[in-house]
Amino acid sequence: MNRASLSSRSVQYGFLVLVAIAWYVLTERGNISRLFLPPPMDVINALTKLFQTASFWSAVLVTLTTVLKGFVIALVLGVLAGYLVTRSKLAIATIEPVISGLFTIPITLFFPMFILFFGVGTGSKVAYGATYAFFPIALNTIAAFSNMEQRYLLAAQSMGGSRWDVFRYVLMPGALPVLFTGLRIGFFICLASVLGGETISSVAGIGRNIALAAELMEPARMFAWILFVVCMSVTLNLLAYSFENKIRSR
Amino acid sequence: MTQVDSSNNDIAISIKNVTQRFGEEGSPESVLALDNISLDIPKGQFVCLLGPSGCGKSTLLNIVGGLFRPSSGSVTVDGRLVDGKPHPDKIAFVFQESTLFPWYTVIENFHIALKFQGIPRSEWDDRAMTALKAVGMASFARHYPDQLSVGMRQRVNMARGICVKTGILLMDEPFAALDEQTRMVLGEDLSQLLAETGKTIVFVTHSLAEAVFLSDRIAVFSARPGKIKTIIDVKTPHPRSPDFMLEPRFSELRNECYALLRDEIRATMALQRDPQAASA
Q1: pTM (predicted TM-score)
Q2: A158/B86 CB distance under 8 A
C-alpha cells in the first residue's frame, strides 16, 4: 500500500472512530432518550445475545438465500437481455433508453403488486430484488459490449479468429470489467431491495426482525440487527471490490 | 494495365476492376469510393497507396484483406480469390491505431494472434520472441500495452503482424500516430525487415516522405472517386538507410508525388466547399 492510500485509509478509519465516540458521548452524557438511540454497549450486548439464538441464523439464512435467488435471476436475465440488445445497433438505440428510462421509476411502487402476485413469503422479495437488480446489470452489460472498439474486432477477425474465438478472447475479456461493475451494483441493489421488502411486509428474514424490534420498542435489538447488516454489506462490498480490481489489473 | 494470369507465381496480390460504392446507386447518399481499380503486386514488393484522405485507399486495403467484399471486381492472393473473407494464413494486418488488446500482456497478444491462426502452441513463444527481438522489444514481453509509449506499442503491433509469418503484410497508416523521429526509425526497421524476410507489403499512408522512403512502387490515388492516378517506381534497393533521404532522387520523387497530389487535394477542398460541384 502506498503512502497516499495509507493516509486516506487512516482518515476513513478515523471517521468511523469519531462516529463511535460521538455515539458513546451522546448516549452517556447527553440527554437523548434510550428509546431513540441506545448506548453502543447495549447494542453490542444485544448483538451477542442475538448470535446465540437459532432464530438469528435462520433469519440471516432466509435473507441471504432470498438475495441470492433474486440476484441469480437478475444476472441471467440481465446479462442475456443486455447481450442480445448489443447484437444490433438499432436495438441499442431503441431498447437501451427504454431500460434506462424504466430504471428511473421507483420500483418500490410495485412492491404491493409483488405481494399480491407472490404472497408475503420469500417469493415476492425474490421477484422484487430480481426486478430491481435486472436494470443495472442489463444496462452495464449493454455498455460493456457496445463500447467495444471496432478496431479490436476487426483486428481479431483479420487474424482469422472464429466467431467463438472473438467472443471468448476479445469481446468477453474486454467487456468483463464494466460487466462486473454492473453485477456488483446489481447485487447490492438486490440486497437493499430484499431487506427493504422484508421490513415492509414479510414473515421471516433480517428485515422482518428489524421491523419487529422497532414495533416492540426494542431499539438495542433493532440497532444490533442494523449493525450486523452494515458489517455484512461492508465485508461483501470489500470482497467484490478486490475481486473487481483483480479482473481489471489482469 | 496489362492482363496478368492470376496463377502467375510471381504475383502476390492481383486486384481486378475493384469498384466500391457505399449506399444505393443513384441515391443522394451514394458515394463511389473506389472506381475500377486494377493493380498487380509482385511477390516481395513494397507498395504504397498514397492519396488524399478519403480517397478510399484504406477501403482498398480492407478489401484486399478480406474484411469486406467489394461492390464489383475481385482480388486474388496467391491465386486464391479473397471474396470478402480474411485469409490469415496468407495475409496479416497492421492497423492504423494500436490494436493490441489492452487486457493481455504483450506476449499474450502474440499468443492470441498465433492461436487464431491455428499455429501449434509449442511454437508460440519462439515466434513471439523472435518478432519482438526484431523490433527491439523483447524485454517488454510481460508488460501490458498501457505501460508502453505510443511508439513502443506500434513496434509491438508491427511485430505481432510479423510473427504470424504470412507472405503478405497489409499496413493501414501504422505510423500515423507517431512523432516524426519515431516514424523514421520504424521506417528503417521496416525496410530492414523487408530485405530480410522478402514479405510483400501494402502500406497506406498520406506521408510523402514515408511513401518514397519505403516503397518499391507508389500508387498515387486521385480524390474521390478513388482511382489510381499514376504509379511511380522507386528503384533503390532495400534495406534503405536514412542517407537515401539526402539523395537528390529522393526529393525529386517526393516532389513528383506532391505535384500529383496537389491537384487532388485542391479538388477535394473545392468539393468540401461546394458539394454541388461534384454532380454538376
Answers
A1: 0.74
A2: yes
